[in-house]
Amino acid sequence: MKKSVLFICVHNSARSQMADAFLKARGGEGFAVESAGLSPTSINPLVVEAMAEKGIDLSGATTQSAFELFRQGRLFEYVITVCDDSNEKQCPVFPGLVHREHWPFEDPAALTGTHEEKMAGVRRIRDQIEEAVAAFAGRFGSA
Length: 143
What we know:
With 143 residues, this protein is of the alpha/beta class. It is 35% helix and 15% strand. The protein has a 4-stranded parallel sheet.
């Protein structure tokens, strides 16, 4: 039976999208994965660029509302929040779950500097998320 996983952050524009994509790509058939946000916006173009470097195409990805999933009565075995504790006052909470985990990652939208400086930051965050997802999948025998 597939483990249902929801990655959630504030805007569903970067961190939760990357985690979702990595678990879908690397987690095998053992997971049903989605991502959502409290105030969904659009996918961060720097994230699309950084994920393409890993062979993952997010150019057509869309965002969705955690509140809408809740209204639909959707339940997830694992809900993993990926907000940065130090900079965000409210990391989303999704009720009705079995296992909740929090993985604090910096928000790529908060990065400043030139395009290349921001890309360096997005790559760092991307790689941290990839490592966390690999460790999570490894707990269930997926890589």
